[in-house]
Write a structure and sequence with these properties.
Blueprint: H1 2-15, H2 23-31, H3 39-72, H4 75-78, H5 84-121, H6 139-146, H7 149-175, H8 177-181, H9 188-228, H10 233-244, H11 247-268, E1 274-277, E2 282-287, E3 297-303, H12 305-316, E4 321-323, H13 325-334, H14 346-359
Parallel strand pairs: 1-4
Antiparallel strand pairs: 1-2, 2-3
Helix pairs in contact: 3-5, 3-9, 7-9
């Protein structure tokens, strides 16, 4: 009974997700669009870029806008006879002017959004999150998402953002309250300049507060992401099997490869000039072909069972076998198949080959 409980405990802990995600798991999650990302950083970056553009190019934009207004309300322009041709031309002209005025803001917003995304997740393109899935419209799962822990955390974050940003905005406006109260006593142009200055300052301070909160949010998102992609020990084992292959299958493949290599080696034995034996433990098949190598080379070798198979094939093909215990052992240890024998064995092998050739009447 204790053994059963021990096995159950081991299975439970093996399935518990306590291990950090592997690089492959992270890459798969990124491919699906699952990354640690705070949308608030994108919002804060875009707002910061827009308000900075307004701060430094507000005068240029004001002059351009006033110039467009004056041009639009000129007497000649207002009384100009409208036709299909000149209406299109005037509309294109006004749109070009508006585009030039808004171009710095739109360009800064686009650049800030791209930069914020790139800094968080790098280059990423995934269609996984926009694919249609039936479980997204499942009312039961939708209800669970609404009342999940993550939804509660998001609600608390939204309340914190509104409260903090609202407090900063109120403080900035309160500091300029004297100027706001005297706006009615100023000219329209001066009042507009004051309001524009207050608006930009409020925007910058509020954006700074939001940026601070977004950095905290990014840390939370990263923590939550790391928690969600954790793996169990069994998950890591399964992933390793998928990448490297099942050890049982790998061993069978290696066994098959060894069998094929041995079969190819045995097919070369009939081409040997001589087989040097131990006589029972080692067998080395040698061949001398001056067109291939300057020295005799090994075409097959083996120990124990393989050695017996080499000798059997050699006997079936009338290959002469020579017993030389030290030479057989040394050649087995110091040579590989297809490799020429070391120079130190030239004399001993030459004497054997001379005897073989003489026996076969080749010399």
């Amino acid at each position: 009974m204790d053994l059963i409980w021990l096995r159950l405990d081991l299975q439970f802990f093996a399935g518990e997700k306590t291990e950090k995600a592997t690089p492959k798991k992270r890459e798969d999650a990124k491919r699906k669009g699952q990354v640690a990302k705070s949308q608030d950083i994108n919002t804060a970056a875009v707002l910061l870029a827009v308000f900075l553009v307004l701060l430094f190019s507000g005068t240029y934009m004001k002059d351009q806008f006033l110039g467009l207004m004056k041009e639009s309300f000129q007497k000649d322009f207002m009384l100009y006879k409208l036709t299909e041709e000149n209406t299109q031309a005037m509309l294109v002209h006004i749109l070009k002017k508006m585009a030039l005025i808004l171009a710095p803001i739109l360009g800064a917003a686009l650049a800030a959004a791209v930069a914020a995304n790139f800094m968080q997740v790098g280059f990423l393109f995934s269609t996984e999150s926009i694919q249609f899935k039936l479980d997204k419209i499942d009312p039961i799962k939708g209800f669970k998402r609404i009342f999940s822990l993550r939804a509660i955390v998001e609600l608390l974050k939204s309340i914190l953002k509104i409260s903090f940003v609202g407090l900063v905005t109120f403080f900035v406006i309160w500091q300029r309250m004297d100027e706001i109260m005297t706006l009615s006593q100023k000219s329209a142009g001066t009042a507009m300049i004051t309001l524009a200055d207050i608006t930009v300052k409020v925007g910058l301070y509020a954006t700074g507060a939001l940026l601070f909160l977004s950095l905290l949010d990014y840390m939370y998102q990263k923590f939550d992401f790391e928690k969600n992609i954790r793996m169990s020990k069994q998950d890591i084992k399964d992933e390793y099997k998928n990448i490297e292959g099942d050890p049982l299958i790998k061993s069978k493949i290696k066994q098959k490869q060894r069998e094929m290599a041995m079969q190819r080696m045995m097919q070369e034995v009939p081409k040997a000039d001589v087989v040097i034996t131990n006589p029972t433990h080692f067998a080395i098949a040698l061949k001398y072909d001056e067109d291939k190598l300057d020295a005799p080379f090994v075409i097959a070798k083996g120990a124990d069972f393989i050695a017996q198979k080499i000798k059997l094939v050699a006997k079936e093909n009338d290959i002469i076998m020579m017993e030389n215990r030290p030479l057989a052992r040394a050649l087995y240890d110091q040579t590989e198949i297809g490799q020429a024998i070391p120079e130190e064995f030239f004399k001993a092998v030459a004497e054997i080959l001379a005897f073989v050739y003489k026996t076969k009447g080749k010399i």
